[in-house]
UniProtKB/TrEMBL annotation:
Matches recorded under InterPro entries: Glyco_trans_2-like, Nucleotide-diphossugar_trans, TPR-like_helical_dom_sf
Highest taxon in the source lineage: Bacteria
UniProt xrefs under PANTHER family: GLYCOSYLTRANSFERASE, POLY-BETA-1,6-N-ACETYL-D-GLUCOSAMINE SYNTHASE
SUPFAM superfamilies the UniProt entry points to: Nucleotide-diphospho-sugar transferases, TPR-like
Species assigned in the record: Paenibacillus artemisiicola
Domain Glycosyltransferase 2-like per the UniProt entry, residue ranges: 5-100
Protein name: Glycosyltransferase family 2 protein
Length: 375
């Protein structure tokens, strides 16, 4: 059985740290906590779990802090988490099983990162991260912000998930770091351009974000998944600025970097639906359902666009086209995913009324009096 050091970097995490450590402690042999300047009870909470609590002077560099934490680990493998991450009980059991039976030559293990769930507990946003690495390989973190672990060797993609359970977020921190770096005259590479643009987007600085996304794509050196994501963000920026044609152009631009993804098909479908083209929109929502769905996705996945959302929107499209039975069928599929969704339940009631009045045949639409299908 392998041994595992759990490494965390923390600052003012008194509200979540114990929850994180409680969720993981059964699977690890050592806990290393590196504090970067807490002024609350974080360090005293960490001391209840481990003697390996260290201080690291914060220098606006996440990779430096994580590399310092990794340097304090002593076990065969290193597992890393953030303080607002947890292992849910089923995933902890999977981790314990992996610990007992990890293939000897394994250098790194990736895990799902569940970032968001809906009210039904269904994961709506996820990606994959390298989480468990062999210490002797000396892997290093790279990047002051949105850092990544530079991993090579024999990797294993596991079905274990880490769940992000944040209670708060310093929304200005990363943007502040990027702009301080720019003020010092630093030139950004493709990765920093992409993530700097994301921070600008998150702060609704859409014109600035567009400029940085264009700079990123213009390098021709970005990771393919980041290129696709940049096209989506560009589309969102143009939409926020009321630039309809550029909104569509940015979504279509994603096809330069790979086959159509479900979320981009939904974007294009929505664009046409909003402009009175339900037939064209239906084509794109059907395409979203038929698009390839990666089993081991390293980029952020919007799972709604590959499951219930296209069905709900197809209900809208076919209602507008007068194909009420088909609209009802798609709404029922959406209802299987979201049984208490207000829009889905509204559509069910409305369409059952239409079909009842028409005896199962398509009833003529009265644009002035018939109830509109909810979006």
């Amino acid at each position: 059985m392998i041994t595992i050091s759990l490494c965390l970097i923390v600052k003012n995490e008194e509200d979540v740290l114990a929850r994180c450590l409680d969720s993981a402690k059964a699977a690890v042999d050592e806990i290393v906590v590196v504090d970067t300047g807490s002024t609350d009870a974080t360090k005293s909470i960490a001391a209840r779990y481990t003697e390996a609590v260290y201080e690291f002077a914060w220098i606006d560099d996440f990779a430096a802090a994580r590399n310092f934490a990794f340097g304090k680990a002593t076990c065969e493998y290193i597992l890393w988490l953030d303080a607002d991450d947890v292992f849910l009980a089923p995933d902890l059991e999977k981790l314990l099983a992996l610990k007992r039976a990890l293939p000897l030559r394994t250098d790194a293990v990736s895990m799902e990162y569940h970032l968001a769930k809906d009210e039904y507990g269904t994961v709506t946003g996820s990606l994959r991260r390298n989480r468990l690495v062999r210490r002797s390989r000396g892997y290093r973190w790279i990047g002051a912000v949105h850092e990544y672990l530079d991993v090579r060797g024999v990797s294993l993609d596991s079905d274990i998930a880490v769940t992000h359970a944040s209670t708060r977020h310093d929304c200005d921190r990363n943007l502040r770091i990027y702009e301080q770096r720019l003020a010092k005259g630093e030139r950004f590479g493709p990765r920093d351009l992409f993530y700097y643009a994301n921070e600008l987007y998150d702060h609704a600085r859409y014109e600035d974000a567009i400029a940085q996304y264009e700079r990123f794509l213009g390098t021709g050196e970005g990771w393919s998944e980041d290129n696709v994501a940049a096209c989506g963000k560009l589309s969102d920026c143009h939409a926020a600025l009321g630039e309809a044609e550029r909104t569509l152009e940015a979504a279509l631009r994603s096809f330069r970097y790979g086959s159509p993804r479900p979320d981009f098909c939904c974007r294009i479908g929505y664009w046409h639906l909003q402009r009175g083209g339900p037939g064209i929109a239906a084509y794109w929502y059907e395409a979203a359902l038929n698009a390839p769905k990666p089993e081991r996705a390293w980029s952020l996945q919007n799972k709604a666009c590959a499951t219930w959302l296209p069905h709900l929107q197809l209900c809208v499209c076919y209602d507008k086209l007068g194909d009420y039975e088909r609209a009802y069928a798609h709404n029922e599929i959406a209802r299987a995913h979201r049984p208490s969704d207000a829009a889905v339940l509204h559509n069910k009631t409305y369409l059952e009324g239409v079909l009842r009045r028409s005896g199962g045949e398509a009833a003529p639409a009265d644009a002035e009096t018939r109830e509109e299908v909810a979006r």
